[in-house]
Amino acid sequence: MRITSHVLPDGTFSYGRVNGTQIIDAGAALRARYPDLKALLAAGATSELDHADGASIDIAKATFLPTVPNPDKIICIGLNYVGHINETGRDRPAHPSIFTRYPQSFVGHGQPIVRPKVSDKLDYEGEFAVVIGKAGRAIPAGSALHHVAGYTCLNDGSIRDFQRHTTQFWAGKNFDRSGSIGPWLVTANELGDPTLPHMETRLNGNIMQTTSVGDLAFGIAELIAYVSTVCALCPGDIIATGTPSGVGLFRDPPVFMKQGDRVEVEISGIGILANDIIDET
């Protein structure tokens, strides 16, 4: 199943399932019990979407929200593709390199990513993201995938000069509306083996990143086990698993996004997350 978070014509935040070229809104049927997708995941009630028939919305005309608009945590993993580790000139880390992002730093599919006034170094980072469906603490790697609700595409848009102000990535990773998540959550049972998808990032139609998700230095189960050793994972939490080689910063010359550009992250079995770039006003 493919599950969206979206905005209805009257401005109400809602959610639903994808059926061909349409979104079948489930909000009218389910919002009284599950006010948002995070609540639906927490209740283990995604199967109820199969029978929650509401208004149909043309995907091409839908206003998408980030896949989970209000996660408790967004955990991002740095230096987690072997190719990207090599292009940075760093050693493979002994443990996952972790930073966090805030929900307001992301927009949904089709919504503009904003290049801030204070920088011209907005970089793309296509990523395969995990959405937690079952809460847990100190989750064994062997059972970690049972805690996954599904997967989505993520663009970890990075303001590179601010990222390098200190040894902490926070400043370059949390500008408002600098990244994106979407277009939807593909449930774990539909996607199948999460090491098999292929990911590609395109800028204005040019392929900038291309990789198998199986090239991760730390796999999805390892990441869930490690993160949950530190803190409990909650339904709706998002783990961005890292970006492959080909980022703009390490190109010669560097390539950064600017107003009028279009960036796409495509993952086989999930879909295409597409966003235009605008300048902050």
Structure summarized in a few sentences:
This protein has 281 residues and is of the alpha+beta class. It has helices at residues 27-30, 37-42, 82-88, 160-163, 170-173, 188-191, 220-230, and strands at 2-7, 13-19, 22-25, 56-58, 63-64, 74-78, 97-101, 106-107, 113-115, 122-123, 126-132, 148-155, 158-159, 179-187, 198-203, 206-212, 238-240, 262-267, 271-279.
How would you explain this protein's 3D organization?
The chain is α+β, with helices and mostly antiparallel strands and 281 residues long. Helix content is 14%, strand content 34%. The chain folds into two domains: 2-64, no CATH class; 74-279, Fumarylacetoacetase-like, C-terminal domain (Fumarylacetoacetate hydrolase, domain 2). The protein is built from seven helices and 19 strands. Strands 1, 2, 3, 4, 5, 6, 7, 8, 11, 12, 14 and 17 form a twelve-stranded mixed sheet that branches. A five-stranded mixed sheet has the order 9-19-18-15-16, with no helix packed on it. A hairpin with a 3-residue loop joins strand 18 (262-267) and strand 19. The longest helix has 11 residues, at 220-230. The model has no long low-confidence stretch (mean pLDDT 96).
